């Protein structure tokens, strides 16, 4: 990104500078702040600052609006807090000659938010409310695990990390076999119970803090295992398959048994790939598992 581009962009921001306490440029793909010095030039000598440290975090934010703004090329607003204040952040994607960056416009909202008849004087209640709102944005309402939006925001970060560090990125796609039969036979409430039960089984097979599970949609799930080798990933998928197959789900007088099919992908990606390629590779193997009889793992 060229300094002239930033000078021009900063000039355009002068008109609104007094409206915000803090304005920064963010590269959400690499989770870093783009440093600009007092002369409105890119400071290439400055120490790299991770964008999430502003919020007191040690890892990427789960509900990152800058990543969402970057991917969808739309502006988003979020209320968040750090140890010192409550901040309203507007993330605006900007196209420069050498790529897209996100401008974060931050306004201190600690004393200006009004929730009439809803809150006591204790700010802790407001912080809990903010946490709940941000958590709901990336959580599936039925199962409580991450949702499709989280996949769309988190998987690109995992992909970039894989490319930069030349490490494997492993993904497991899971589909419950003949799930429609469960709904048609026992009803949707029982179908929901099956989904929640299987979510718990899948989660119990995930051991590392770096691995995560999300509901891709309907009866499909995605497990991401950054850096996991193929053998480990297949073994984890097989342990999930066996655990699901052996579990009897009791609903009233009914004992329901289901199975699931698994597609595994594991490779080192290049800069020519995007996160959809990661999903597509695992999904192809999932379809292969279905064609080969279901209740199996393919890779």
TrEMBL record:
SMART domains: GGDEF. PROSITE patterns: GGDEF (PS50887). CDD domains: GGDEF (cd01949). Residues 167-299 form the GGDEF domain. Pfam families: GGDEF. One of its GO terms (cellular component) is plasma membrane. GO terms for biological process: cell adhesion involved in single-species biofilm formation; negative regulation of bacterial-type flagellum-dependent cell motility. This is Diguanylate cyclase (GGDEF) domain-containing protein. It comes from Ruminiclostridium cellobioparum subsp. termitidis CT1112.
């Amino acid at each position: 990104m060229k300094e002239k581009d930033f000078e021009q962009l900063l000039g355009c921001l002068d008109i609104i500078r007094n409206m915000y306490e803090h304005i920064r440029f963010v590269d959400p793909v690499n989770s870093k702040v783009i440093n600009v010095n007092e002369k409105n030039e890119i400071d290439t000598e400055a120490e790299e600052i991770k964008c999430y440290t502003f919020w007191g975090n040690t890892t990427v934010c789960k509900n990152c609006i800058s990543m969402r703004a970057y991917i969808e090329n739309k502006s988003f607003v979020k209320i968040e807090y750090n140890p010192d204040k409550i901040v309203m952040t507007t993330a605006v994607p900007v196209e420069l000659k050498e790529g897209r960056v996100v401008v974060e416009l931050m306004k201190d909202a600690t004393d200006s938010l009004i929730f009439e008849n809803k809150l006591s004087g204790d700010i802790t209640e407001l912080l809990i409310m903010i946490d709940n709102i941000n958590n709901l944005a990336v959580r599936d309402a039925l199962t409580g695990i991450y949702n499709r939006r989280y996949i769309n925001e988190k998987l690109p970060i995992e992909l970039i990390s894989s490319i930069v560090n030349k490490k494997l990125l492993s993904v497991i796609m899971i589909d419950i076999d003949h799930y429609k039969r469960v709904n048609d036979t026992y009803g949707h409430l029982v179908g929901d119970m099956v989904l929640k039960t299987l979510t718990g089984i899948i989660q119990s097979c995930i051991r590392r803090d770096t691995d995560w599970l999300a509901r891709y949609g309907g009866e499909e799930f995605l497990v991401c295992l950054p850096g996991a080798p193929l053998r480990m990933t297949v073994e984890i998928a097989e342990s999930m398959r066996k655990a699901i197959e052996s579990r009897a789900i009791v609903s009233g007088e009914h004992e329901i048994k289901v199975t699931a099919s698994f597609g595994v992908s594991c490779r080192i990606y290049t800069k020519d790939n995007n996160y959809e390629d990661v999903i597509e590779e695992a999904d192809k193997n999932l379809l292969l598992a279905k064609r080969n009889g279901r209740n199996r793992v393919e890779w």
